[in-house]
Amino acid sequence: MSEIKQYVIFSLNEQVYGIEILKIKEVVSYRKITPLPNMIGFTKGIINLRGIVLPVFDLREKFNLSETTYTPFHIIIVMEISGRIMGVIVDEISDVFLPMYKPNISKALGKKNMSLSSCWM
Amino acid sequence: MINWIHELQKRTSLRAKILVATIVVVAGFTGVFLYQTVSFHTESALNQVAESSQGLLKYPMSVGDSKTVEKQLKDIKDHMEGVEVYISDFQQVLHYASEEDRIHTSIIHYLWEKETQRALADALGTGLSPNQSFTEIRNDEAFLVTIKPLLNERPCHHCHGASKKVLGAMVVKHPVKEVYASLAAARNRLIIFSVVEIIGIILVINFLFNRLVTRRIKTLAEKTGQVSAGDITVEVHDDSQDSIGKLSQNFDQMIRNIRDRMEYANSLKLGISEPFFMVDPDMKLTYMNDAAAKLSGVRSENVLGKKTCEEVFKSDMCHTGCPVTTKNAEGKEVPIMASGAALRDSAGKILGGFEVLRDISKEVEAESVLRDSYLKEEEAKKNLQHRVESLSDILRGVAGGDFTVKAEMSGENDAMDQLVQRTNETLDHMEELIGQTKRAALTVVMGVRHISEGNQELSQRTQQQAATVEETSATVEQLVSNINQNATNTQRADSLSKEAVAVAMEGGDTVEKTAQAMNGMSESSRKIVEMMDLINEITFQTNLLSINAAVEAARAGEQGRGFAVVANEVRNLAKRSSEASKDIQNLVRDIMDQVNTGKEWVAQLENGFKKIVQTIKQVSDALSEVSLATREGSRGVEQIGQAVDEMGGVIEHNASLVDELAGATEQLNEKAGLLQSMTDKFKLGDQGDMEVEELNFKKSYQVQKKDRRGTEPPTIKPLRDELATQHPIEDKPDDLIEKELDEGFEEF
User: Fold this and answer.
1) B489-548 pLDDT per residue, tens
2) DSSP 8-state symbol, B162
């Protein structure tokens, strides 16, 4: 297939990231996360999403960004990476990038005036 | 005749008079009684005879029984000897008679006396029986004739009818010779007894009267005769309690009183120790006491009743009461004072006289001594008068103002010398005193002159003061009008401030409403914010849904491409709505901020209005107080005006007083000049220190005057001009008033 890949653009601490749309299972709003014992680092806990229990990670902590207080207007992106379903907390989903041709990331990014220091997942 | 009786009455004794009176009274009364008794006896006896014969015939006649009447008459004739009874009709014709042969004859023939016949006719005419019987005497035969008319009474009507009043008369002739004889015997006896009785009564009365009255009165008369003859030693002993006894006792008492009086007069006579004698109307001595006998040198028993006053005393004192002389026993002239008076009886007749003498030889001696001393005194008096005249001359000079001459002393050191000395001392003192008076008068003149000058100045100042007070009065009036204007303005300001309070309160209400509206706005904004949150959430969810849809569309591959476009559009819408909602939220937040700011402002405004209201109320109160104070001030100023008017009156009064004072001072000035001219009349010694005092006075006055002149005279600024230059309060511009009010607010 002429793979025209779509990317969901999200922001974290005013920094824009993108992820391939097919890796996303669902986006939900931030909800109460049940903490688990012995959790370390960026693991925030687990949530029950329609019968599926999945872990939630805090990307801010992972990326060593400044902490913030989460509100219902934060977003948990449920994604499947390497066959594992998990949720990550982001600040905002700003766009779904749908290239009609070969993606010119730099152009897309340049439109936003952002540095391409972010990484692709 | 009366004189004769009077003479007889005087001559005869009391006893004879009483006897005659007794005889007259007893004989008179007893004689009348005797006569009455005798005549009554006779008449009653005769009437008895007549009645007895009449009573016998009355009944048979009334029944018309003629036979019985005749029989009765016959019986009368038979049994009563000499009695004749006739019964006649009204024509004096006999129908019945005791002598039967005389029937049917006229009765006139058997009545001899004319008096009897007339009485019968009267009885037949009137029907009344005569009230007496009649006596007829013929041939030594005495008859008593009794006439009775026979009246036509009711039992007679059946025979005689009722037409006639008198049917006839019955005449009874009764021989009374024997009756008369017995009556005469009884009368004679009665008269004899009465005479004896009268004589007895008279004798007894005369005896008793003589015993009880006449003899005692005679004794009393004898005794009084003795007294009137001069014997006052008599006494009457009569202790009975009747009038004569009382008369005797009173007589005794009178005699005793007379004796007491005589003894009293004798005691008086004997009690006179001065020479005293009494004379009879012929100037013969009747009494003289021992002192008089000693003075005249005679023995009283030799001269009493024998010699006259002149013979005994050889003096003319017997005729005068003045001081005279007499010769005493040694033949020496003795001065005497005699006083005498006539002795009179109760009728004023002179019975004699008495005279009391007094030996005044000692008094005469004393009088000569007195005359000598009087002459000596007269001489001393002349001497004294001379000295007094010399003193008087000096005093006359003094009275003329000449004090240079002094009186001289005689050197005798008597009372007059002391008087002269005292006079000299007095003159010295007076001289000194007049000197002082002169100096003082000069001072007074000067002083009065200065007072006069000062007074003129005072007058000028008073007038000036009056003018000033008038100006003050005008100014006060202006002030009053200004204050009244003030009061009006204040009242207006007061009402304005009240209106302002009302307006401010309305503003406060509006502000409150505004605050409420602002609160509503705030509430609405809050609600908008809440709704915006909801919208945000929806937008957020929509965005999430669009993402999810995009994810699902991507996963659907080629089939999901169109859906991906829709999802993208949805996501765009969500994004736009999110932006819009963010804008709205910002706007609402701005609004809320502004509303909050507005609320604060409104709150501040409210506080401001409250303060305004409060302040305006205070202003109103203050204005009321100001108004009150202004009214009081107005009254005060009116009182001040009255006071100023009164002061004007007082000053006018003062001015008139000052005028009066000026007049008085003028008079005082005249008087002081007079005083000075008067004191100048006196001629004195030295007058050295007068000038010094005058100079002193002048100096002191000038100093005083200079002091007064040193002070500035009070400058009078006409207040009216000052006030005229000032604007009244209402002439101030309004903004200035407001400014003042504002400033006033700040002070509150």
Assistant:
1) 888 888 888 888 888 888 888 888 888 888 888 888 888 888 888 888 888 888 888 888
2) S
Across chain A, how many H-helices and E-strands are there? 2, 8
Q: In what order do the strands lie in the sheet with B276-279?
A: B285-288, B276-279, B350-359, B333-344, B323-327
Chain B residues lying within 8 Å of A24, measured CB to CB? 547, 551
CB burial of residue B534 (10 Å; 0-12, 13-18, 19+): exposed
Full-prediction pTM beyond 0.90?
no
Say if the Cβ atoms of A95 and B571 lie within 8 Å.
yes
d(CA B608, CA B478) in angstroms, rounded, equals 42
B35 Rama class: left (phi>0) / alpha (psi -120 to 50) / beta: alpha
Q: What are phi and psi of B430, to 5 degrees?
A: -65, -40
Q: Tell me the backbone φ, ψ of residue B130, rounded to 5 degrees.
A: -60, 145
Classify residue A101 by its DSSP letter. Answer: S
Amino acid at site B633: G
Interface test with B, best of A29, A79, A96 (most B CBs within 10 A): A96
Question: Regarding beta strands A84-90 and A52-58, do their DSSP bridges make them parallel or antiparallel, or are they unpaired?
Answer: parallel
Q: Spell out the domains of chain A, with CATH numbers in brackets.
A: 7-111 (2.40.50.180)
- What ipTM does this complex have? 0.79
**Cα gap B157→B163, rounded to integer Å:** 9
A/B interface, count of CB pairs below 8 Å:
46
Mean pLDDT over residues B375-402, rounded?
A: 85
Q: What is the rounded CA–CA span in Å between residue B339 and residue B360?
A: 13
Report the distance separating Cα B297 and Cα B355, nearest Å: 17
Q: Which two tokens stand for residue B415?
A: 């009372």
Long-range contacts of B734-743 (CB under 8 A, 24+ apart): B741/B619
- How close, in Å, is residue A38 to chain B by CA atoms? 32
| Nearest partner of A65 among A29, A90, A92, A35, judged by Cα | A90
* A8–B548 CB contact, under 8 Å: no
**At B563, which amino acid appears?**
F
> For the residues of B468-517, what is the DSSP string, one character each?
HHHHHHHHHHHHHHHHHHHHHHHHHHHHHHHHHHHHHHHHHHHHHHHHHH
Largest CA distance in chain B: 245
Distance from CA of B525 to the nearest CA of A (A): 22
Gyration radius from chain B CA atoms: 85
Q: B313 and B321 in contact (C-beta within 8 Å)?
A: no
Tokens standing for B19? 């006897």
Which of B537, B548, B555 lies nearest to residue A27, judging by beta carbons?
B548
pLDDT (tens digit per residue) in B36-93: 887 887 777 767 766 766 666 666 666 667 778 788 778 877 877 777 888 888 888 8
CA B565, B569, B570 angle in degrees (round to 5)?
Answer: 115
Secondary structure letter of residue A86 according to DSSP = E
